[in-house]
Amino acid sequence: MVGSPQPWQVGEEGLLLLAGHAKGQIPLQVINCIPFGPLELRLLGVAAELHFVKEMALSSRLLSYACPLSAAGNQLPSPPCALAGLRALLTLCSGRVPAVTLGISAVEYTVGIEINFADSSLQNSLRSYFKNLSFPLLLNVSDSSVKMSSINVTTVCDSTGANSTHCYCEHGYEWPAEACALQPTCPKASAAEESCNCIAQLPPKGTYCQLHSEDASSVYIIEMSVRLDLPFQDDLWNSSSTLFKKYKHDLEKVFFAGYSSLPGFRNVTVTGFRPGSIVVPYTVIAARDIPVERANSKIAADLKDTYNLIDNSFRREIPDGVNFSVSPERIFKGDTVKMTCESKSTSSNASWDFSGHLISTGTRHSIMNDITDGKSVSTLTITSIQLSETGNYTCAFMEWGTNLTLIYKAVENIAVSQLHIMPSENVSVVCNGESKELRCCTDAEIELTSSWKTNGALNISGSPTSINNYCTTYVLQANESQCPADKSGAKTDYTCELNSTYGARNYSVIGVTYFRLAKVNITSIPDGKVSEGHSFSVSCISDVSNYNEVTWQIQTGSSIKNVDKVWYTTSKSNRGAVSVLTVGNANQNWAGTYICTFYQSFLNSSAHLEMDIVPLPQQQDIRRDPIDTSVSCPMNRDLKCCTHRKENYTVVFYDLQRPQSVLAERRLEGRLNCYYHNLQITEDHCNSVGHSVQMFCEFSNQINDSIKSSPLILNLVSVKNIRCDSSDLGVGENGALITMPCSQSNETATSVRGNITYKCDNAKWITVNNSCLIVPVNELLNSAEELVFSPESVQNLPTYLESLDTTIKKEQQNITNSVANLKAVVEILNMVSIIPVDANQTTMEHFLSTVDTIMTSPTETWKEFKNGSSQLLDSVERFSESLQPLNDTIPLVRYDNIQLEGAVIGKNNGSDYHKSFVFPKSANLSGSVLIDEAKINRTGTSFSTIISVAYSSFGHIDPQNNKRPGFVINGLVLTTVVSPSDRLNDDFQINMTFAKSEKSLKNPKCVFWKFNLSADGGGWVDAGCESREDAHQVTCSCNHLTSFSVLMSASHEDSVALTYLTYIGLGVSILSLVVCIGIELAVWKSVTKTRISYMRHVCILNISISLLIADIWFLVVAVMDDKNYQVDQRICTAATFFIHYFYLCVFFWMLTLGLMLFYHLVFILHNTSKTVMKAVSICLGYVCPLAISLVTMASTLPQGTYTKKKVCLLNWEDSRALLALVIPALVIVAINAIVTIIVMAKISRRSIGEKSMSEEHTLLYRIAKCIGVLTPLLGLTWGFGFATVIPESPTIFHILFTIFNSFQGLFILLCGAFWDRKVREALLNKCSFSRWSSQHTKSTSQGMSAPMLSISSPFSRTLNNLFGKAGKYQVSSTESASSSPENTSKTYSLMT
């Protein structure tokens, strides 16, 4: 019996099970084609013929298939027929299976077939037939994808007798353990524990031989490869590409079909593709070693046409067929390495590759192949192997065959490592004979040799030692002679090199720095002793220039002070280094032993010097009594100078005029050390009554240094002039001032600064000024002076600022209302602002909190503090420059009146500087600062520190606003500073925005604070800035840094236009006045024949002359101010005087003209001589202005308050001298306005009876003419000045005021000359002599017939009443031509 069907599951679609029985009646064979239902297969054996009968009961149908006997008569069906039956069976099963599509694995079936035959000799024929079949066999079905891949014989049963049968398993198969246990085994075959190969009877139904149990669980991997004669495509590298998937699928299908016929085969997998043409490596997985060469020819045939598989290109790698050895065992870079392969193969065809790359003989690689003792040996030698040659090395021996080439291969991973050297650390050697050991070790336990080399400024050799415990040492020893001073700190490299036996070598460098102990000398100037308040310097000289750091210390007893770096500078030279400590104002903190130390890494060298600070009081510490007083003459007066120092000084008093000095007497008064001198006021002094005596006290210490006090002033007063007499304060005449020192407080050991000024007033001394500091502020000021000149000023500054902030807040009320205390606090801020300080949040807050507190002081207090706001700005700006960033940051500080922000801008961060400020308590007043980072040129550092400070209420503490009249600060004040080491680029620009605090103000000016603008302090300047304005803010662009703000005009926005209008008007007025004066002189005789006309033209002429001179001076001063010309003060005083005087003359001559008009209107019958009128007019027009001008100048010039600070005009801010012009002008304008009203009232008085319409028109014309003539002549246009001083006044008033008053000369020409009919006639007569006689006669007759102020004139109808009562007097309207001109034409053409 042949056939032993073994059921196993071959796919998801089904399980094929075959069972059979081979004896007697042919039983029904049932095969289940899962899931297609039952299938019956019946095999019938007949003596005469053997045929297959296949019956299938499917849907009540029976299908059968029969095979005739073969022609040979051997009772065996013909193999084609048998296969046809098998095909029919598989077709039936597979016909129910879905069609196979690409990408879906085909369904595979294993069919068990049992063949019964009587002649057992037919087994060999059947075996041979099955072996020679070419697989796969195509089944005769419509679906060509159904193929038979292999036929294997598993079980053979032979009948040995009537009742004896042996059933044995073919190679690779065995009976199950159950079958062996239940069935007798064949002779010479013992039952194994679990299975056996032969049993002595037929097994139970469904029992057949199975694969070996070890094959079922074991995995045998066979590495194969084959070549395809196709071009390699890049997509075959990519396992996810479509081409790769297609090739892999197609090839695996063919491989599987070919190898599945081999017993033990399980699977095959294509692992990838590689070039040449296309090499296909694949892995065959089997239960044991299988003869793959049996299937290669079939696979080659299947792939020949589709994939051009190259014949005889099958390769199989034989593992464990090569012995691979390497020398040396540990491989280091540079070694010569030998790799040897011994193969079981006798082939000498060996090859080597490294990580997939074929190795060939070259400069560093050599390959030798040989056969020794029947074994192939191949040796690869690599000279000076490199780290990059670490990896897998493969040696392969090739045995060529027809269907398969065997490759005996061995792979070894070669690790190439660096010969690691572990050197000792870099060392420093002091050239004083000490020894140092250098060491180089390795972790490679191999035989090594070593060597040492030196390279550096100092080639000092050492002593090497042999290698011990894989280490080599080198001992160095240097003395001072081997280390020159200029080479101290020089570094020498010592190189140790280790070499292995096989050629590897490596080295390491150990750095050795040689130091020589520096020789340091220290000296001082002056030598060893210096007085307090004097300067001194200490120099420390080292012969070694290569130092890392220099420090200075002062030791006093057991206390050591570290001197801040701000006090000393250090420089290097070829001969060494010099560090110089310089102190400009010595105090007791500098006394002690000076230690200067030069550090060279760990080595330091020092020198010592004793410095004695000899006490000597400072001038401000000397308390004088009296300071400035009055004494009667003759008398004796005690003078004293005191100090809080208890040292015994030599003190003398002397008078500069009498240089002989007098030794003072020492007395201790409480905490004060006082020196007295009794001054005798002799007759010699008395002869100089009205003068003063200035005495000085001079303190000398033990080293003969001296300090002279400020003067003690004694004003000599005769006894008869004494009005005040006090035992405490002394005597004095009425109005005398004396100055006394402040009272000494028991709360402090030092003198309280300041003084008290008393005034003798009505026989009593009254206090007029007290500049004494309160004790806490006095202590702070003394501490600040000590701190600034302290060795530890930088270290102690944070503590002092904390104390300052606390004290100022506590004493705020006393400070903000006292100019002296406010000055002291600002002085303190100025002093400490120059000390460098870290940008610590707390320290900054203390400083700025103090500033915020004093900024709340009343405006009146700040006004009395001359240049105080400028000093405060300067102190904050310097403090900002002194800040040193911490961790590259500047903390944010915000208070109600001041805010600070900053940033550190680096080279690589590329960010601009942009900061914004908002003050919520100041109506959200805001501003911002923007600086392009590229506009700052950093020098020496990689970053820039930029700090901005904003002030919200600077305007109320800045009295300097008055230096720019009409402008006020209308926003924040912004201060921006950069690192002192940084420079601004030429195209630097800072952009700032200022929110307007008063949006109604106009004409913005971007200004900066110039600290040295004038002798009395700083001020706002607009140079280098441009402004842009919108409704709510002003943008300023400036090309420099300092404190900026926006000034805006509180008056009007057309100031520039009005300025040009003023210049034009003044120019026109000057020309008009010149013309007017020329006309008056030309027609003088013709128009001054009557007393009234004479006086009228006298007034007009003097008004013109005075206004001409005044306008010329004013124009010159205005031009100089606009051009910022510097003018000598004497010239400025003269210009101011002439402007004041001549404008007063203009007004007073206008007053004269107005009074004359009033006189002739009211007092018609009163005749005053021309001489009297001229005298009164001259006195009123020139003398009164002169008196006012001289008095004004005399009262203000001595105090320096006559003129403005920068403009040659009368001062307003300090002395109100401008009132000497304003008040007379306003009074005169008011008087002339009254006169004009009277004139209009006289013209408009109604006569008896109703007036006709024409008379009404004539009256209105005369009134209008009267106003037009009198307004410029009487100066009424100056009345517009009242409107211009009113805040928010309309612009029209400013324009009218400018037009009427700058063009006043033109109006005088028109109204005073051209409008006068007589003047016009006179000019015409001058121009045309032929018409002169008739015109003159006509004019005379008209003038004599109806003078304006005659009784018949409306002006003279009411002589006794100013406002229109009926007249009572009759005056002839005609007079003889020979009558006196005094009695004719009283006011002729006064207003014509």
| Mean pLDDT over the full residue set | 77
* Morphology: elongated
| Helix share bin | 25-40%
Low-confidence stretches: 1-83, 89-105, 189-194, 1329-1392
How does this model look, in words?
It is built from 26 helices and 78 strands. By secondary structure, it is of the alpha+beta class. The strands form 20 sheets. Strands 15, 16, 17, 18, 19, 23, 24, 27 and 28 form a nine-stranded mixed sheet that branches. Strands 64, 65, 69, 70, 71, 74, 75 and 78 form an eight-stranded antiparallel sheet that branches. A hairpin with a 4-residue loop joins strand 4 and strand 5. The relative contact order is 0.03. One of its GO terms (molecular function) is G protein-coupled receptor activity. Residues 888-1054 form the GAIN-B domain. This is Adhesion G protein-coupled receptor F5. The chain crosses the membrane at residues 1060-1087, 1099-1120, 1140-1163, 1175-1197, 1217-1239, 1259-1280, 1292-1315.
Please describe the structure with a list of short key phrases separated by commas or semicolons.
1392 residues; transmembrane helix; alpha+beta; Adhesion G protein-coupled receptor F5; disordered C terminus; membrane; cell membrane; 8-stranded antiparallel beta sheet
Q: How do you describe this structure in short?
A:
The protein is α+β, with helices and mostly antiparallel strands. 28% of the residues lie in helices and 31% in strands.
Layout of strands and helices, then pairs:
Blueprint: E1 9-11, E2 14-18, E3 29-33, E4 38-45, E5 50-53, E6 57-58, E7 61-62, H1 79-94, H2 122-131, E8 137-138, E9 147-148, E10 155-159, E11 165-169, E12 173-174, H3 177-182, E13 198-199, E14 210-211, H4 213-217, E15 220-228, H5 242-259, E16 265-270, E17 274-275, E18 278-286, H6 293-307, E19 315-318, E20 322-327, E21 331-332, E22 337-343, E23 350-354, E24 357-359, E25 365-372, E26 375-382, E27 391-399, E28 405-414, E29 416-417, E30 422-423, E31 427-430, E32 435-441, E33 448-456, E34 463-464, E35 471-477, E36 490-500, E37 505-515, E38 520-525, E39 529-531, E40 536-542, E41 549-556, E42 559-562, E43 568-573, E44 576-583, E45 592-600, E46 603-614, E47 623-625, E48 628-632, E49 635-643, E50 650-655, E51 658-663, E52 665-669, E53 672-681, H7 683-686, E54 692-700, E55 706-708, E56 712-717, E57 724-726, E58 730-732, E59 737-741, E60 755-761, E61 764-770, H8 775-788, H9 793-810, H10 812-816, H11 819-832, E62 837-838, H12 841-854, H13 859-864, H14 868-882, E63 883-884, E64 893-894, E65 898-906, E66 913-919, ...
Parallel strand pairs: 19-28, 21-29, 31-37, 39-46, 48-56, 62-63
Antiparallel strand pairs: 1-2, 2-3, 3-4, 4-5, 6-7, 8-9, 10-11, 11-13, 12-14, 15-18, 15-19, 16-18, 17-18, 20-22, 22-26, 23-24, 23-27, 25-26, 27-28, 30-32, 32-35, 33-36, 34-35, 36-37, 38-40, 40-44, 41-42, 41-45, 43-44, 45-46, 47-49, 49-53, 50-51, 50-54, 52-53, 54-55, 54-56, 57-58, 59-60, 60-61, ...
Helix pairs in contact: 5-6, 8-9, 8-11, 9-12, 11-14, 15-17, 15-23, 15-24, 17-18, 17-19, 18-19, 18-20, 20-21, 21-24, 25-26
Pfam families: 7tm_2, ADGRF3_N, GPS, Ig_3
Keywords: Cell membrane, Disulfide bond, Glycoprotein, Membrane, Signal, Transmembrane, Transmembrane helix
GO cellular component, one term: cytoplasmic vesicle
